[in-house]
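FIELD: query
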Amino acid sequence: MKIYPKSELGIAFLFTAGALSWLLAMGLAALWFRTILLTPHITPGPNYDPASLYYFLVTFHGQAGIFVIVPDLALAIFAYSLHVGKMNIFHKKLVTLAVWMINLPLIVEQAGGPLTGWYMYPPLALQQGSWLIYRGAMIGVAYFMIALICLGVMIAGYTMFADAYKSRPKNEKIPIFASYTMAFSGMFMPLTITALMACSLWYSLYFWAGVPVNPLTWVVLFWFYGHPVVYYVPFPVFGGLYYLIPKFSGRSLFS
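FIELD: result
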């Protein structure tokens, strides 16, 4: 029995399931920290620290969105575009492995109770008190988990891009839907997330080997992914609209 999807549509469903699971958790976190803001009259007690809980929920909300949900959705749309374009993912086992690499490590990272905000700016993110549970080398492990997420995105994106290129229609143009997803989900997203991977490994080395972190360089690397990440789902969707609107309207689409 195969333990991985047998089709491009199955791969799309797997990525979508991961995205929806984290989206549900992110939504609950958003409701929770907004509830905290609406109840400032509640007095902190020995078992309730609203400030720490608030910053943890804000951190979880942001990191789940840009580290997992966006890549999951972008890659799900990529796989679906290959399905409708009659193109193939040849390395389904490898892509399935990448799905788990993208979705599981965040659980380990969030188990440490980060209070850093989703942006993880130094020097705040390098302080022991910025974590509720983890200390010392375990903080390095948490940041290494983010690096594993980035590696999973790179594996999935580049593998699907290469397979899509190999299975492109012969003597024809690549379908516009697939071309959009190949560009944004398969090339630009894995390329820019390399910088986030470097950021996370840099933090890990700080806790594991005392490697100093230059704040300005770190921030530049982070935003190399952190800024364009907001486009990696909408642009593939635009490609899908170029495919779907003419199909269901029965006429050509001009732009």
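FIELD: remark
The chain has a mean pLDDT of 95.
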